[in-house]
Amino acid sequence: MRLEAINEFVIRFANVNGTGSASANNMFSKAVFRMGVPVSPKNIFPSNIQGLPTWFEVRVTESGYLGSRGDVDFVVAINGQTLRKDYDTLVPGGYFLYDSTKALPRGFERDDVIDIGIPLTQMCIDNYSNPRQRQLFKNIIYVGALAYLFNMEFEVLTNMVKEQFAKKEKLIPPNVGALELGYNYAKEHYPDTCGLSVSRRDNVGDAIMIDGNSATGLGAVYGGATVCGWYPITPSTSVVEGFEKYAKKYRIDEHGKNKFALLQSEDELSAIGMAIGANWMGARAFTATSGPGLSLMGEFLGLAYFAEIPVVLVDVQRSGPSTGMPTRTQQSDVLSAAYASHGDTKQVVLIPCDPADCFEMMAKAFDVADRLQTPVIVLSDLDLGMNDHMSRPFVWDDNREYDRGKVLNAEQLENMKERWGRYKDVDGDGIGYRTYPGTHPTKGAYFTRGSSHDDYAAYTEDSSVYEANMERLVLKWETAKDVAPHPQIKYRDKDSKIAAIFYGTSAQASYEALDGLEAEGIKINTCRIKSFPFHNDIGSFIQEHDQIFVIEQNRDGQMRSLLISEFNFGTNRMQSILNIDGMPIRARRIKRKIERMLNGEKVSPFTTAHSSVEGA
Amino acid sequence: MRLEAINEFVIRFANVNGTGSASANNMFSKAVFRMGVPVSPKNIFPSNIQGLPTWFEVRVTESGYLGSRGDVDFVVAINGQTLRKDYDTLVPGGYFLYDSTKALPRGFERDDVIDIGIPLTQMCIDNYSNPRQRQLFKNIIYVGALAYLFNMEFEVLTNMVKEQFAKKEKLIPPNVGALELGYNYAKEHYPDTCGLSVSRRDNVGDAIMIDGNSATGLGAVYGGATVCGWYPITPSTSVVEGFEKYAKKYRIDEHGKNKFALLQSEDELSAIGMAIGANWMGARAFTATSGPGLSLMGEFLGLAYFAEIPVVLVDVQRSGPSTGMPTRTQQSDVLSAAYASHGDTKQVVLIPCDPADCFEMMAKAFDVADRLQTPVIVLSDLDLGMNDHMSRPFVWDDNREYDRGKVLNAEQLENMKERWGRYKDVDGDGIGYRTYPGTHPTKGAYFTRGSSHDDYAAYTEDSSVYEANMERLVLKWETAKDVAPHPQIKYRDKDSKIAAIFYGTSAQASYEALDGLEAEGIKINTCRIKSFPFHNDIGSFIQEHDQIFVIEQNRDGQMRSLLISEFNFGTNRMQSILNIDGMPIRARRIKRKIERMLNGEKVSPFTTAHSSVEGA
Amino acid sequence: MSYLKSTFRHPESPKNKLGYTEAVYEGALSTLCAGCGHDSVSNSIIKACFELSLEPHKIAKMSGIGCSSKTPAYFLRSSHGFNSVHGRMPSVTTGANMANRDLTFIGISGDGDTASIGMGQFMHLVRRNLNMVYICMNNGVYGLTKGQDSATADIGSASKKGVPNMFEPMDLCELAISLGSGYVARSFSGDKSQLVPLIEGAIKHNGFALIDCISPCVTFNNNNASTKSYEWVRDHKEATGTFDLVPEEQEIVVQQPNQILETISLHDGSVLNLHRQPHSLDIQSRESVLSSLEEARQNEQMLTGLLYLNTDSRNTHELINSSEKPMNSFTKDELCPGSTILESINESLR
Amino acid sequence: MSYLKSTFRHPESPKNKLGYTEAVYEGALSTLCAGCGHDSVSNSIIKACFELSLEPHKIAKMSGIGCSSKTPAYFLRSSHGFNSVHGRMPSVTTGANMANRDLTFIGISGDGDTASIGMGQFMHLVRRNLNMVYICMNNGVYGLTKGQDSATADIGSASKKGVPNMFEPMDLCELAISLGSGYVARSFSGDKSQLVPLIEGAIKHNGFALIDCISPCVTFNNNNASTKSYEWVRDHKEATGTFDLVPEEQEIVVQQPNQILETISLHDGSVLNLHRQPHSLDIQSRESVLSSLEEARQNEQMLTGLLYLNTDSRNTHELINSSEKPMNSFTKDELCPGSTILESINESLR
Ligand SMILES: Cc1ncc(C[n+]2csc(CCOP(=O)(O)OP(=O)(O)O)c2C)c(N)n1
Ligand SMILES: Cc1ncc(C[n+]2csc(CCOP(=O)(O)OP(=O)(O)O)c2C)c(N)n1
Ligand code: SF4
Ligand code: SF4
Ligand SMILES: [Mg+2]
Ligand SMILES: [Mg+2]
User: Fold this and answer.
1) Ligand 3: centre distance to CA A610 (Å)
2) D152 part of a folded domain
3) What is the C-alpha to C-alpha distance for residues A583 and A592, in angstroms, rounded to an integer?
4) For residue A137, what are the domain limits?
5) D31 and A51 in contact by Cβ < 8 A?
6) CB A279 within 8 A of CB A369
7) How many domains would you assign to chain A?
8) Ligand 2 neighbourhood includes D86 CB (under 6 angstroms)
9) Which residues of C touch D295 (CB under 8 A)?
10) Most buried of A123, A405, A572, B302 (most Cβ within 10 A)?
11) Could you give the number of structural domains in chain C?
């Protein structure tokens, strides 16, 4: 019994890191893509630079399911340290390609696995003299062998080699040679061995292959970001590297100078501080980090929330808590992002699920931040950020303008009749008008602060002024629900009472699983969340269903918690009585409030003079 | 119409800060207490050092209600800047004591207010030559006047002066003289004017008067804290000052050296880092901060959670967000404390409601932290921390031992048969055995880290090992529910379907409000939360009632959110499907999981191999 | 609570080149303690900006948290101000400066804000040579939190609390010099005649300019045992020389008649005339200044004045080759590569 | 993934006074890149602890995050280790040291960990003079995050990425000296004969001892344009003198025959014999060392060896007058004032 499949299988490469395997494995994956067959590669690497086990999993998926499937059909086992584990990983009927320079040790005797021994080390010794070449070409040789085994178009590979080394032509022949070595060895020793194959299709359309972080970086360029302060941390570093790469290409002025300012900061506090300062000054600025950095940015995120300064932060999540597993994925910063900072603070969060989303949401994040004058956290993860993904191509409408939100220019200030107040809600959406420093000689200057302030940005310790400001921020939060991207709701069956909710990188695998269930007659409606605060449609969607699976990648069901606490489902029995004016809560007011609530009156939960006219 | 009351009224002093008024006002308050009448003072001060308005409110409350009542019956208006506001504050029938050296301006013509003009400035000019004295004695004079107006025992005041200046005797006569000046002036000009009075009772029992922060500091001394790193921030500074004061008194060794190490750190990150390092080394250590500091400590709190290091953090909450109102109270760090740090992190929180609680919970916090090997956050607030409160006296049972939790000493290590693993759950409560550095020459050393680790503290990126560790932490969380202080549940009527939940400083005013409602026939059962994670009794309590008021001092109903999301009331319809092994979530596993859940099987939410045996 | 000062002034108040009186450069009424050194520093800033005829709206006032950090509310009411979070003014200012290099940035901090929680950001700010004036109102104590020692308190110095400081003090000037700052000065809030020209020079300097200004806290650290009290500073300060600044546009200056020993041109064409005095330093040699500082420390002297000057240094923008045009002024068309390029990017990813 | 090294050794491996072979001081197998300077530093630490006959369990190994900060797993397997968070090893070590002053604290950090995110904590650690050995494995680059410049990279130096650094470098030795550290050294991972005695001296020193150890990153910063490459360092380093340490208990030492110019007694009775060489420094004068460092910098020289020594300084415990007994050893009876005192406290509050 052997596995048989055309364009539908999972292959896993087991290598040692720092040996150049990732680029060979990528070449394999890209070749599949170039043959018109959808593919989904995942690099599973250790938190170290050289010498430890690393894996690379490629899912060949004609049907276009790009999430992780689970189970492994074919293993390329190049790493002695993990041989056993890699062997055990195979499903029955799977294939085990190993370096047969040395015989397999005892215990590798599964009779449901097809062994494919190729003496890679020996072939390298025989063909190359330089040790670095011996190491590098080993990888190319097995790619060549796979081309034979999977019956791939060899030319696709040789063309890729030619493209890659267009500028170092003399490297082309040895690489092609190595591919051929592998191809021929496999052809000679393993004809008709492999039941898996890759066959040309036209299933990728105009799709592109790119990692999410590069797409995010590109989105920042398109979104008009000019300032970025950042501090390196896996897996977010390549967001900034992507931004830098594209900015260096497309953002040079006529004097050869940069139309962007990129600074490596001394830590994450400084990185977010720079981004806040620049946004305050009217440039679009961002930073990118991962969990530990997010934790460090808490105080500054609270400042930006309360002083109402737009800022864009990309959090590429990795496995927590603490340092956790820095090179593994997770969706476990949901709560820390949504509630970042002490006090009554809530942050806007956008959640992309593929590179096109990364590009689009990153560009959009600046509009949302400027419109709402508040931080926007783009919540990606390692899987999305660091792996290549097949994706819709990027699109940009040249007529699209940047939405800089409510900003007064010199002329508007000049012509203004009423007294301007930075935090005055003149439009009823909770958002005031801001000014950039330097705009007008005498008008529009104000003092920005994280301490409490009135409509005119003046410091205040007056309870009711403080409270009115806090309530305005709640109103702004309502406004945000419509400004941030809306959820993607799909009905498989309008009458079905079963639903699933997911977000980000949990989406792809979820859709696939639900397609599978649908094939078995179970129709599950879906809601992909794209942002926090939650749009009201999500609330209605939840109300419409009786059994809802919330699918996510963390231990504590963080998004589910957030949904439950923001929507208060089934908890009407718990009513808040709140005091927020900075004074100790007062007995008389609690009593009056309860009396009115028991009477069934509709009253605000706040016990303070301002909102409930219940005495000082 | 004038207010008439014996031992039941609220008086508010309006002063300028930096003028010595707080100690005079305190003297008044303490005098009431010494007359056996319960009293509750609140200092309402600005975030500045000198020259701005400040208020001091004293509630005289024979019935013993120590929360804030609301409304003001008597104003002592010494601050010209706020005269108008202070005047307007008075309830009908109230009293307005002002400095009549200058006549009241126009607009102070309420006919429902009784004016009491005393020419304080003039009296000071007439009686004192030194400007500082003129300023200070102005306060003493009005205290003297109040003594007459409220018919207080004058001796109580003069005794207090004597006590206070026991070491500077020559200050006694002028102070007593100032009291007399005021007393006599009032007697002469305002006989029978005031319907409010203070009359000796025996209602304070063995109570003490102290601010919560000093009590917390004392609790740290009794709880055995030896190391403290801290950074000044209002309103937490006096926790450490309290610790220092008592430690300097009771913790000096036979060579005159300190049996404690107190370091002012360079910031909050350093402060919590020091506390973590010291606890790791086996000393009991703590730090204290307020909101902005809590935000800065996020990363370190995650480290302590994941590396399982006990540490005690006192967060004295103030009004947020950001810098907010640093000298005003609030309960708005509930979510940031409970979920501090990125990743799947949850923190143990203890919530005192009066000074005796502060003392007891602080001492207890070290036991809880040592037992659970995790951070414990003592969540106080400005009202509790910085105001004097009448309180049960402190108690300490000399037989009480410190619970240092599971720590192996040299002998235990020596005699150990099995292989010891720092994070091995041998007792089934999710808690391993730790060792202090330096314990045994060859056994018990391990490597502490915030990265993922196995039972033996070795670094791992193995999905199932990581996952098992994360699930053990969930088990430990279950254990925590019983280790942390249990809620205080009170039934006014077992059959009542109405309840209230509150915590910390919201308790006192809530009890009073509910007593008032009970007098009107409405019986509301109560649950005072003392800790997070929530004890199961809280869940049952909620289930028993149909309408529950959650009373708290923040905008977003943070405790209510926490209750809702931790208990999942009414949300059985939302089931989690979770992946936490660091690999992208897999379609096949989601599908199998949903199938089983739809079948009604009881399965773990985790899709990973480890917990659900559903393939690799 | 801040009250606007009455803007009434005698009609004949002198006006600067822009036609503004000094009052235009004032701010809200201070809420600091009467006698606080910080208020004097604010006045010197007002004076310097007035004398240099700066457009107030082309100045950004930046600060952290502390009594000192409140002062930007008390000067330059027509400038935008940003009172950020404790110790983090440097990063916020860096971002703001990156976004608009055309403004003048005046950063105000305290010794707690700079030398404790802000030490890391301060060091890196200097290292990047951000074009700004950084004034540390140094009182050796945490004023706003009521009197704890700061990291600039000298060994043995005691605040009102009475406990002598045990730890080595941070010398901000020494640090800034060793990190390559091109303009480093120390002064005293009480010495307006020295401080005003120092601020003017700092504003004109291209790159990071530090003024470590001793500014006594009358409430918590003005006692006998303190080395940051008015009295101690008056008794121990030692001016290293004086100078006056001749703005580029100005032609003739009437000044004190001290002999001009050296004339240094600044970036924008202004000129610094140095008047050396007996204790004068070679302010263009890092080595010599560092040893003079060490020596002064040993002799319990406090050197004041311009301590180090290097007009050659390149500021952050110059170092990272950023556009001359302020980042916040670019339009979408200048920033967005557009759909055609995007299509070619897509193509390269297939 | 770490593998235990085989502990098998030839039976005649030399033993130290405790009867331990050097193998006892080793750790798990390193997972760093082959040739990484950090591994050599680990070996020198092993050697120094072996030679000084330290009880491994009386040592605490502390670190932050980075390739360098991983090394404590690769030496001293019988010591407790703490790999904390990025840049914050100083505070964690301070707390640990406060809790048990009897242990030897060896802190390991990288240049990113120390000079960027950790700069604030580093400065304050020095200022408090915590009794510890602080080794910065300085490669001018962020190894673990794949090759960004660190704040110790020299101006003009370029890593594998090829872009020259523009910003002023942080000189940790200069900073430590100006903050009063009593033992400041610079060395090179490749020079074991210099490094081992420096580590030994640092361990014996009472107070904060810094070793800024240049330790090349072969993967990201060992190229031609880098001033932290093996080659550059070999070519530009200039030893300032050598010394040997005579532990208190030892009586006679056979050593290289250089002339002993100075003999300095350490805190515990050990003795440092300094052998001055042509380029030798006056290591007991702050002023002279600071100028030599400035001078060397101008000459593109890297001074190595013990740069500054002051045996008089008091460590943190001494400064805050804490008990001689480790804090973690006090029992409840020694700590808790008990109920009678509590009753008197209650009484005072009525
Ligand atoms: C994160 C944080 N920690 C602590 C504080 C409390 N705090 C406010 S000002 C200050 C110190 C101010 O000292 P300094 O900078 O010297 O200013 P000064 O008041 O002496 O002018 C502190 C610790 C804070 N606001 N934020
Ligand atoms: C808060 C935080 N930010 C960023 C990182 C990512 N990070 C890990 S190591 C490192 C730099 C290491 O550089 P260095 O200290 O020089 O050590 P090296 O690897 O060069 O030895 C960074 C930025 C982190 N772990 N934590
Ligand atoms: S406390 Fe000190 S620093 Fe603050 S305003 Fe008063 S005098 Fe100035
Ligand atoms: S990346 Fe550099 S620092 Fe890290 S282990 Fe490799 S050589 Fe060493
Ligand atoms: Mg200060
Ligand atoms: Mg490094």
Assistant:
1) 34
2) yes
3) 17
4) 5-197
5) yes
6) yes
7) 4
8) yes
9) 287
10) B302
11) 2
Stretch A42-52: mean pLDDT? 92
Q: In this predicted complex, what is the ipTM?
A: 0.96
pLDDT in tens, C288-323: 898 888 888 888 889 999 999 999 989 999 999 999
Q: Are residues A500 and A548 in the same domain?
A: yes
Q: Note the pLDDT tens digit of each residue in C95-110.
A: 999 999 999 999 999 9
Same domain, A342 and A288: yes
Output the CA torsion B96→B100→B102→B106 (10° steps): 30
Question: Ligand nearest D145 Cα, by number?
Answer: 2
In a domain, B593, yes or no: yes
Question: Quick one: DSSP state of residue A572?
Answer: T
**Residue B277 domain-assigned (yes or no):** yes
- A182 neighbors A351 (Cβ within 8 angstroms): no
The verdict on residue C13 lying in a domain is: no
Count the residues in chain B.
Answer: 616
Query: Residue D304 is encoded by which pair of tokens?
Result: 């190595």
**Partners of D273 in beta bridges:** D244, D263
B442 touches chain D (CB under 8 A): yes
The CATH number assigned to the domain holding A344 equals 3.40.50.970
Mean pLDDT of chain A: 95
Instruction: Please report the pLDDT score of residue C4 as a whole number.
Output: 41
pLDDT in tens, B112-122: 999 999 999 99
User: Which structural domain range is residue C163 located in?
Assistant: 22-241+277-318
Whether D68 lines ligand 2, by a CB cut-off of 6 Å, is yes
Which chains have 3+ CB pairs within 8 A of B?
A: A, C, D
Nearest-atom number in ligand 2 for the CA of A232 is: 23
Say yes or no: B307 contacts chain A, CB-CB below 8 A: yes
Strands (E), C126-261: 132-138, 141-142, 148-149, 183-188, 208-214, 237-239, 241-246
- Using a 6 Å cutoff on CB, does residue D145 contact ligand 2? yes
Would you say residue A405 lies in a domain?
Answer: no
Nearest to C213 by CA among C137, C308, C142, C122: C137
Q: How far is the CA of C240 from the centre of ligand 1 (A)?
A: 31
Question: Ligand 1, residues C42, C84, C108, C145: which to mutate, most atoms within 8 A of Cβ?
Answer: C145
User: What is the rounded CA–CA span in Å between residue B595 and residue C335?
Assistant: 51
User: Do C121 and A393 count as a contact with CB atoms less than 8 A apart?
Assistant: no
CA B552/CA D122 separation, integer angstroms? 41
Nearest beta carbon to residue D336 from set B224, B441, B446? B224
The residue length of chain C stands at 350
Same-domain pairing of B418 and B514: no
pLDDT at A356 exceeding the cut of 80: yes
Residue A589, both tokens: 């007011």
Domain match, B246 and B114 both? no
* Integer Cα distance of A228 and D244 in angstroms: 50
pLDDT tens by residue, D39-85: 999 999 999 999 999 999 999 999 999 999 999 999 999 999 999 99
Question: B52 C-alpha vs ligand 1 centroid, how far in Å?
Answer: 19
For residue B188, give the amino acid letter: E
Residues of A with CB below 8 A from C322's CB? 257-261
Q: Note whether B423 and B512 are same-domain residues.
A: no
Contact D1 A46 (CB under 8 A): yes
- Secondary structure (DSSP) of D216-279: --TTTS-STT-TTSHHHHHHHEEE-EEEEEE-TT--------PPP-EEEE-TTS-EEEEEE-TT
Mean pLDDT for the stretch of residues B293-321: 98
> Are residues D29 and D64 both part of a single domain?
yes
**Whether A562 contacts chain B with CB within 8 A:** yes
Sign of CA dihedral A410, A414, A416, A421: positive
Q: How many Å apart are CA B383 and CA B212, to the nearest integer?
A: 8
> What is the Å distance from ligand 4's center to D219 Cα?
6
In testing the pocket of ligand 2, which one of A48, A49, A230, A233 has its CB within 8 Å of the most ligand atoms?
A233
